[in-house]
């Protein structure tokens, strides 16, 4: 498959925010799919303090071609000052599913 498929991960402060942003990104074809996983407990360092928070993690499926636009759009919609946006290459998987992702982005 010539086009590289990516798995992108981001966390959100609550389900409503995650759902609203995921809906926008799918509707506008920045991503083909978004899976919301509620009730994530996060521990992190922020501004020299250890913080804990309940969050929602979202797994987005997109393509390398859409990655820069996806990241820019997510950054503009995200409420965090420094949102988690991590992208990983998907090297193998169902060819039909990977093709579906490619066909539904951009």
What does this structure look like?
The chain is of the alpha+beta class and 106 residues long. The chain has one domain (5-103): Alpha-Beta Plaits, CATH 3.30.70.120. The protein is 34% helix and 40% strand. It contains three helices and four strands, in the order E-H-E-E-H-E-H. The chain has helices at 15-27, 64-77, 95-103, and strands spanning 5-12, 33-46, 49-63, 86-90. Strands 2-3-1-4 form a four-stranded antiparallel beta sheet. The chain is elongated. The chain starts with a strand and ends with a helix. The model has no long low-confidence stretch (mean pLDDT 96).
Structural class: alpha+beta
Fraction in beta strands: 35-45%
Instruction: Report how far apart the termini are.
Output: 17 Å
- Radius of gyration using CA atoms only: 14 Å
Order of helices and strands: EHEEHEH
What's the arrangement of strands in the largest beta sheet?
2-3-1-4
Helical segment tally?
Answer: 3
The average pLDDT is 96
In CATH terms, what is the fold-level topology?
Alpha-Beta Plaits
Percent helix? 25-40%
Number of strands: 4
Work out the count of structural domains: 1
Under CATH at level 1, the class stands as Alpha Beta
The gross shape turns out to be elongated
Largest sheet: 4 strands, antiparallel
CATH architecture: 2-Layer Sandwich
Low-confidence stretches: none
Give a quick rundown of the structure:
It contains 3 helices and 4 strands, in the order βαββαβα. The mean pLDDT is 96.
């Amino acid at each position: 498959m010539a086009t590289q498929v990516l798995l992108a991960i981001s966390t959100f402060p609550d389900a409503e925010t995650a759902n609203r942003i995921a809906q926008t990104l799918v509707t506008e074809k920045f991503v083909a799919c978004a899976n919301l996983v509620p009730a994530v407990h996060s521990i992190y360092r922020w501004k020299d303090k250890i913080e804990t928070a309940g969050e929602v993690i979202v797994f987005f499926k997109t393509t390398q071609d859409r990655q820069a636009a996806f990241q820019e759009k997510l950054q503009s919609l995200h409420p965090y000052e420094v949102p988690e946006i991590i992208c990983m290459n998907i090297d193998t998987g169902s060819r039909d599913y990977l093709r579906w992702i490619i066909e539904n982005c951009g």
